[in-house]
Amino acid sequence: MNNLDFSAEPLFSWYVVLLALSGVLMLLLGAFAGGLKVGLRILNVVVALGFLGYAYYLAFVFEGGTYYIFFKVFILPVALIAGSVKAIVERSNAKNQPAPQAVAFNPNAPQAPFNPNAPQAPFNPNAPQPGVPQAATPYPPGVPPQPVADNPYAQPAPPAQPPHPAG
Q1: Are 20 and 52 in contact (CB under 8 A)?
Q2: For residue range 103-116, what is the model confidence (pLDDT) as tens digits?
Q3: Which of 29, 39, 25 has its CA nearest to residue 88?
């Protein structure tokens, strides 16, 4: 039933143990590593389940006979584990980096040439103009002052209506 016997067949026993160890490590990386993309996590879990299933088969179901040891099968877990650890470290480093700061305007820096065919924003007469002193009132010209929103007693001025013709 149990095929692991390190004294009789050490190569076979170590092969099964390494298969199981690689499977468990890849399963943990695929299931719990938050820094990996979904596709890499799924690949880790699928390959890990295959390794664990084959290790279980060799350890408990296999009844002797011919079996093949593919040493190339350990290249995949090493590559997946190395790639997973690299992705986790890169994502961790990216989170610790400060956010890029906005660059202050430098009037002496070269500017793009003026393009008269470029679309222009419409002129807003109420927008503050450079070099023109602004009036003390916060309202645009021609608009009467409005009541303050936090004053419950302030009432808007009724609009001026023309007198109704008596008829």
Answers
A1: yes
A2: 777 778 777 777 77
A3: 29
